[in-house]
């Protein structure tokens, strides 16, 4: 193998895939990235395909190269990324070469820099998953990034509730609904598809896969194709592909958790409420389970927390309030996550009683709902 490639293109490609490698895996090959040069994908150009996987998530990036001869090798993903990232920005081209009869060493040349990386046989690297799609949708890159920003914080980290360790995606008609929950809070986002789907499809995508898809979508304005297979979900970007093993199991009926009505409604300035909650967290973090009491009385909404060792704090929020006097306890960390994910000026808080979940929605954005379970006051 011998190719010349743009230094920036190589850096971008390695940056896209190296996180999918697993340096702690029992199989050393999984700490490597597969580098394979061949014709294809790009018309009139040879392609360098970079692939990394931990068996759960697989990412492949493709970039055009000038090829003298094809070849394939695997090298340590972390080392390759560190070296390419450190190359002089004054140099525009990198030469990658596997010398004849020395197939386990990759030579990298860039300006006055020459590096040799020990490799492992490419034949030992796992093949790409076979995806027999039962349905494919197209989603805007912006919509994909919105799913990551507004839902990832609500995904459960409890491995005993495995089906909650990802985001549930359900495409039907013109819309895609994305749902995440950890049992204490629920985030629901409905976003339009780039084109309507002819048949409903659904699946639960791993948290890591959504993280990687978010990174791959940055700077991209082209719709992303998402293929749902029986045990995999496949994201197709213009110059990269992500495969994720789907989470098996029945996702809970989230719709029954969403309140159908709110007897008490408060419309608040989102940033003011967020700043107040951050200040209150200073006191509440001393509690075993952080809690802020929301109280509506005489048309004013007050937030209060106290800790026997740290002290107490109270904030009064301005805004429009409808309903009778009301008190409920909520976890401030969950609300900070929600308000930071929203981008509207105002947020509407809806309550029914102190034992029912609170519903928070950005004013002017009907596609996002955030439900928080109450705490005993």
Report the biggest beta sheet as strand number plus sense, adding barrel if it closes: 8 strands, antiparallel, barrel
Helix content bin: 10-25%
Could you name the CATH class of the largest domain? Alpha Beta
Count of strand segments: 23
Q: Label the overall shape.
A: elongated
Tell me the strand percentage band. Answer: over 45%
CATH fold-level name of the largest domain: DNA Polymerase III, Chain A, domain 2
Specify the structural class.
Answer: alpha+beta
Radius of gyration: 25 Å
Strand arrangement within the widest β-sheet reads 1-4-3-2-5-8-7-6
CATH superfamily of the largest domain: DNA Polymerase III, subunit A, domain 2
Helix-strand string: EHEEEEHEEEEHEEHEEEEHEEEEEHEEE
Compute the number of helices: 6
Architecture of the largest domain, according to CATH?
A: Roll
Your description of this structure?
The chain is α+β, with helices and mostly antiparallel strands. The chain folds into 3 domains: 123 residues, DNA Polymerase III, Chain A, domain 2; 122 residues, DNA Polymerase III, subunit A, domain 2 (DNA Polymerase III, Chain A, domain 2), CATH 3.10.150.10; 109 residues, DNA Polymerase III, Chain A, domain 2, CATH 3.10.150. Helix content is 18%, strand content 45%. Strands 1-4-3-2-5-8-7-6 form an 8-stranded antiparallel barrel. A 7-stranded antiparallel beta sheet has the order 10-11-23-22-21-15-19. The chain has a 4-stranded antiparallel beta sheet with strand order 18-17-16-20. The radius of gyration is 25 Å and the shape is elongated. The model has no long low-confidence stretch (mean pLDDT 92).
């Amino acid at each position: 193998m011998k190719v010349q490639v743009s230094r920036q293109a190589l850096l971008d490609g390695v940056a896209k895939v190296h996180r999918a490698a697993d340096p702690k895996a029992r199989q050393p090959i999984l700490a490597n990235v597969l580098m394979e040069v061949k014709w294809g994908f790009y018309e009139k150009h040879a392609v360098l395909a970079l692939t990394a996987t931990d068996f759960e998530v697989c990412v492949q990036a493709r970039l055009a190269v000038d090829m003298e001869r094809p070849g394939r090798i695997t090298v340590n993903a972390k080392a390759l990324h560190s070296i390419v990232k450190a190359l002089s920005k004054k140099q525009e081209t990198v030469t990658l070469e596997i010398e004849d009869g020395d197939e386990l060493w990759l030579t990298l040349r860039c300006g006055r820099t020459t590096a040799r990386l020990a490799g492992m046989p490419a034949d030992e690297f796992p093949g790409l998953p076979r995806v027999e799609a039962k349905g494919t949708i197209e989603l805007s890159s912006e919509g994909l990034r919105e799913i990551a920003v507004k839902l990832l914080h609500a995904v459960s980290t409890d491995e005993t509730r495995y089906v909650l360790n990802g985001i549930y995606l359900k495409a039907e008609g013109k819309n895609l609904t994305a749902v995440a929950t950890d049992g204490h809070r629920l985030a629901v986002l409905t976003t339009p598809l780039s084109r309507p789907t002819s048949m409903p499809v659904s699946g639960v995508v791993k948290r890591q896969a959504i993280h990687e898809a978010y990174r791959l979508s940055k700077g991209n304005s082209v719709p992303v194709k998402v293929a749902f297979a029986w045990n995999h979900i496949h994201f197709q970007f213009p110059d990269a592909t992500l495969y994720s093993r789907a989470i098996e199991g029945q996702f809970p009926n989230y719709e029954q958790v969403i309140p159908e009505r709110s007897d008490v409604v408060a419309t608040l300035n989102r940033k003011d409420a967020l700043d107040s909650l951050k200040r209150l967290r200073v006191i509440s973090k001393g509690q075993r389970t952080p809690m802020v009491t929301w109280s509506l009385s005489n048309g004013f909404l007050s937030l209060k927390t106290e800790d026997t060792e740290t002290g107490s704090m109270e904030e009064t929020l301005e805004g429009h309030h409808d309903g009778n006097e009301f008190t409920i306890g909520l976890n401030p960390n969950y609300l900070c996550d929600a308000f930071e994910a929203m981008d509207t000026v105002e947020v509407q808080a809806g309550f029914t009683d102190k034992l029912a979940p609170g519903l928070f929605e950005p004013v002017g954005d009907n596609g996002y709902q955030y439900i928080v379970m109450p705490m005993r006051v």
